[in-house]
């Protein structure tokens, strides 16, 4: 009613629908990401292709095998004198007898096969330094310019060529800043030790490196640039709250665990390496299947490893003296194993037995075969990724309930990188087995502790030593000893038998 008594007209409210505007910052970030990936994949990672497009054609001539190499047939050579382990190839311009050329790139073809015919090319590599002669040099010997003085060795900061029978490993870019060399010969100097086998079929000079797009590298680039798109400052993940009951977030968490685990196992598989033989750098034999031999010993009811023991160890006054062993090595062929414990006529493994009991022994009992080292590290890495991710998410829920989704995910990703598992899966030797196992068991134990609210903790000293009681079973947990993580294990497993042994290392 108005003051005059006349009713005021009713005003009908309109509901105005606000159209949701597109997130232009997201699309701008995607466009920039596509440009960056294209620059890296088409340009940076194919730099060898672009640099060799104008390389002049070259013909190769006579091949001179150095005195330090002994031919074994089938493109194989054995190094008998590392100082003279060279192969020299004469080069010249097409249509001339000795016309000097400007060497821009080389390809050392390892075998006559066009494809990688080795079961594991990582086990059959040759490490070489490439040199070209400079005919304009002042000295009469025509100074040799090595690739180690070059700025153009693509993908190898040491400026050497570590190649195998895999064609992708055989290319090397050669060049020195602001200077070119007119050459009539290219020399390959092998860096492998005496007794090692190297491969050589023929040499190609100034080959045009093919343009390639590596799907795995491209996927890695997309994932990396996608990380910056998702976690850019204006992204929505910084405005959302993390929650363990949100289905979409849980699905993303599960997908992340699966993807991260697959990546780690794939790296472990592709970089696997099995080696058994003499290492001439310290003149001891190496065996990368030490854990397999330990599991095999347990399956057959003993703790010593089934390895040949040089009879000189049994007759020496002090077999643990490195000087005495090295003296015998110079007088004949001896077989002493590196990083093994020798005791009473047998070799033992002094690395923790828990990984063998948990994985390799059951695998051998079921399949009758040895479990590969890459698979052992892969299993423990998957457990570490799973329990580590769940642990971080659990701690965020319990202690930081208002944390944003972006901060929680950054913590999860940073935590999984910080476990250092990528180091152990990239070089799958037996040294990584106890490390991956301990990380997995530590994270598993911490997640169990977080789930048991009634567990009672008591501090012991400054080493971070604690104990807890679950269902009447006492276990101990040491957070770190000498900077290494140790797992939660029952006291009976932590007991040391105090047997006397000496490590041959």
Summarize the SSE layout with pairings.
Blueprint (H helix, E strand, L loop, with lengths): L23 H20 L3 H5 L7 E7 L3 E5 L2 E4 L6 E7 L8 E2 L2 E5 L16 E8 L10 E3 L14 E3 L7 E3 L8 E2 L1 E6 L6 E3 L2 E4 L9 H16 L16 H24 L5 E4 L4 E4 L2 H10 L11 H5 L6 H8 L10 E4 L2 E3 L5 H14 L5 H27 L5 H14 L2 H6 L5 H20 L6 E3 L4 E6 L2 E6 L10 E2 H4 L7 E3 L1
Antiparallel strand pairs: 1-4, 2-3, 3-13, 4-12, 5-11, 6-10, 6-14, 7-8, 7-9, 7-12, 15-16, 17-18, 17-23, 19-20, 20-21, 21-22
Helix segment count? 13
The largest pleated sheet is described as: 6 strands, antiparallel
The number of distinct β-strands equals 23
Alpha carbon gap, first and last residue: 102 Å
Rg result? 31 Å
Portion of residues within helices? 25-40%
Overall shape: flat
**Regions with little confidence, pLDDT below 50 for 5+ residues:** 13-19, 454-502
Helical/strand content category: alpha+beta
Mean pLDDT: 78
Strand content: 15-25%
């Amino acid at each position: 009613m108005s003051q005059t008594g006349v009713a005021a007209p009713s005003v009908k409210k309109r509901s105005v629908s606000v159209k949701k505007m597109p997130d232009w910052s997201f699309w701008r970030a995607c466009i920039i990401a596509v440009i960056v990936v294209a620059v890296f994949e088409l340009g940076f990672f194919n730099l060898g292709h672009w640099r060799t497009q104008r390389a002049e054609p070259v013909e190769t001539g006579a091949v001179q095998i150095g005195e330090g190499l002994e031919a074994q047939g089938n493109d194989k050579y054995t190094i008998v004198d590392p100082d003279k382990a060279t192969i020299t190839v004469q080069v010249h311009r097409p249509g001339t007898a000795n016309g000097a050329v400007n060497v821009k790139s080389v390809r050392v073809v390892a075998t006559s096969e066009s494809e990688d015919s080795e079961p594991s090319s990582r086990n059959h590599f040759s490490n070489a330094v490439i040199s070209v002669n400079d005919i304009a040099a002042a000295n009469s010997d025509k100074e040799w310019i090595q690739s180690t003085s070059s700025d153009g060795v693509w993908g190898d900061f040491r400026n050497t060529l570590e190649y195998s029978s895999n064609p992708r490993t055989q290319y090397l870019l050669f060049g020195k800043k602001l200077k070119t060399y007119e050459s009539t010969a290219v020399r390959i100097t092998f860096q492998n030790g005496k007794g090692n086998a190297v491969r050589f079929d023929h040499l190609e000079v100034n080959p045009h490196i093919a343009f390639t797009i590596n799907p795995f590298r491209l996927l890695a680039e997309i994932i990396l640039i996608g990380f910056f798109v998702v976690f850019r400052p204006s992204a929505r993940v910084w405005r959302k709250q993390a929650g363990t009951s949100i289905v979409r977030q849980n699905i993303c968490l599960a997908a992340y665990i699966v993807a991260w685990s697959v990546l780690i196992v794939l790296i472990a598989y592709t970089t696997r390496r099995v080696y058994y033989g003499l290492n001439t750098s310290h003149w001891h034999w190496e065996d990368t299947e030490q854990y397999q031999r330990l599991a095999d010993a347990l399956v057959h009811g003993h703790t010593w490893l089934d390895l040949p023991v040089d009879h000189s160890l049994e007759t020496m006054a002090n077999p643990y003296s490195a000087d005495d062993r090295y003296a015998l090595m110079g007088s004949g062929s001896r077989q002493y194993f590196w990083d093994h414990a020798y005791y009473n006529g047998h070799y033992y493994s002094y690395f923790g037995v828990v990984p063998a009991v948990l994985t390799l022994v059951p695998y051998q009992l079921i399949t009758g075969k040895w479990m590969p080292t890459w698979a052992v590290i892969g299993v423990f890495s998957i457990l570490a990724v799973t329990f580590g991710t769940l642990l971080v998410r659990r701690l965020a829920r319990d202690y930081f309930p208002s944390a944003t989704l972006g901060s929680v995910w950054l913590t999860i990703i940073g935590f999984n990188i910080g476990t250092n598992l990528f180091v152990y899966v990239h070089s799958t030797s037996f040294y990584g087995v106890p490390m991956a196992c301990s990380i997995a068991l530590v994270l598993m134990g911490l997640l169990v502790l977080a789930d048991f609210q009634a567990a009672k903790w008591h501090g012991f000293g400054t080493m971070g030593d604690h104990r807890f009681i679950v269902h009447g079973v006492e276990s101990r947990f040491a957070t770190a000893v000498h900077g290494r993580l140790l797992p939660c294990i029952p006291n009976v497993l932590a007991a040391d038998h105090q047997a006397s042994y000496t490590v041959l290392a």
